[in-house]
């Protein structure tokens, strides 16, 4: 008899368990000379959304300062109506032809703005390299704060948390600078027009608030091993139909085929909105849902900005590091030897193939089996 692997469940208490050091290295909010601050945050959608909670704490700590945000062009729309920032600027640093031209453009922008403090929430080789060039040019501000205590940062926290959840890594960065932690969930500024557009879409399909469940069944094209699979999601439709609920599919261009497969199997019960919404319409729709079932995808972090109960299915990625923060979010993963491999390709995909819809039922929001 084959023994089935355990289905592990992860909540905030499991994923946000690192002990933070509250030692203040430099009490920046008390420094009256700080008038203009640059926050650097690039990364993927999930990391960007998580960081909006950190941005909120920075905003609250410096009520008199002017805040600027440097992000990637693809995420600029997330901050289009964000009143916390006087300026949101982007340089495409991912382009390969013309890379050095982009670097020069980035450096020139920073020099022109004459920042008093730069907070690097990205802290990767590229951001460190650019800030190092800024220091070598003699154009860097005296106050450089990053997520790890290393060069070129001038404010260095007493401990590094390389294996912790990204949210706690950024929280540790704030604590060493005397910035109080007040925000424990993403803080998005959504324009009334986005709210109206999302609610109009729901009305067009006869979807009343709390009468439907959202499936976030795709992933970025480079992360296909993170997908539970269209057939699994399609089988889950029957469970929700018994409860009198319809399904809404959300996602982007990379997830269109996955969503179309599910919608074709259940054309009357499933509303496929994949590729039809803006990024900031996603949390509006999810706020009206009764529950959310998701893969480990950036869209799940947008959904977590609401208070709608959500189950996130993890396989090749570590839920201790990728679960969207929130007491309303539960991450699940089969306890297999190969879990957390982060592989882009897999010959057996056991972490997802062996997780049947029947086994998942007990971990779904509001399930009687829970």
Going by helix content, strand content and strand pairing, the class is: alpha/beta
Query: What is the topology, as strand order, of the major beta sheet?
Result: 1-12-11-10-7-8-9
The biggest beta sheet, please?
7 strands, mixed
Given as residue ranges, the uncertain stretches (5+ residues, pLDDT < 50) are none
Tell me what the CATH architecture of the largest domain is.
3-Layer(aba) Sandwich
Query: What value does the Rg take, in angstroms?
Result: 22 Å
* Strand runs, count: 12
Tally of domains:
2
What form results from the Cα inertia axes? Answer: globular
Give the rounded overall mean pLDDT.
94
The CATH topology assignment of the largest domain is: Rossmann fold
Distance linking N and C termini: 26 Å
CATH homologous superfamily of the largest domain - what is it?
A: Glycogen Phosphorylase B
CATH class of the largest domain: Alpha Beta
Q: What is the string of SSEs from the N terminus onward? A: EHEHEEHEHEHHEHEHEHEHEHEHH
The share of residues in helices is 25-40%
**Share of residues in strands:** 5-15%
User: What is the count of helical runs?
Assistant: 13
């Amino acid at each position: 008899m084959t023994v089935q692997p355990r289905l592990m469940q992860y909540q905030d208490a499991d994923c946000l368990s690192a002990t933070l050091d509250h030692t203040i290295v430099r009490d920046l909010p008390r420094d009256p000379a700080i008038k203009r601050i640059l926050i650097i945050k690039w990364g993927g959608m999930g990391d960007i959304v998580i960081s909006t909670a950190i941005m909120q704490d920075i905003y609250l700590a410096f009520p008199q300062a002017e805040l600027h945000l440097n992000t990637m062009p693809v995420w600029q729309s997330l901050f289009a109506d964000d009143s916390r920032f006087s300026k949101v600027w982007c340089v495409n640093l991912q382009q390969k032809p013309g890379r050095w031209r982009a670097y020069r453009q980035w450096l020139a922008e920073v020099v022109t703005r004459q920042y008093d403090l730069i907070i690097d929430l990205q802290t990767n080789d590229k951001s460190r390299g650019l800030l190092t060039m800024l220091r070598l040019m003699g154009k860097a501000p005296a106050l450089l704060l990053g997520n790890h205590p290393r060069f070129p940062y001038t404010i260095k926290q007493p401990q590094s948390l390389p294996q912790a959840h990204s949210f706690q890594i950024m929280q540790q960065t704030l604590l060493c600078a005397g910035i109080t932690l007040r925000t424990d969930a993403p803080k998005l500024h959504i324009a009334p027009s986005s709210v109206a557009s999302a609610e109009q879409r729901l009305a067009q399909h006869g979807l009343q608030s709390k009468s439907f469940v959202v499936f976030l069944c795709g992933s970025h094209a480079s992360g296909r091993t993170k997908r539970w699979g269209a057939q699994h999601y399609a089988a889950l439709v029957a469970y929700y139909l018994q409860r009198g609920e319809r399904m809404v599919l959300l996602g982007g261009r990379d997830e269109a085929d996955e969503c179309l497969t599910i919608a074709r199997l259940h054309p009357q019960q499933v509303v496929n909105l994949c590729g039809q919404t803006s990024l900031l319409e996603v949390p509006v729709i999810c706020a009206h849902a009764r529950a959310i079932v998701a893969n480990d995808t950036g869209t799940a972090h947008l959904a977590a900005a609401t208070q709608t109960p959500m189950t996130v299915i993890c396989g090749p990625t570590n839920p201790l590091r990728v679960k969207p923060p929130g007491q309303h979010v539960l991450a699940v993963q089969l306890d297999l030897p190969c879990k957390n491999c982060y592989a882009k390709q897999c010959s057996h995909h056991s972490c997802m193939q062996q997780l049947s819809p029947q086994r998942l039922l007990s971990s779904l929001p509001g399930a009687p089996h829970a």
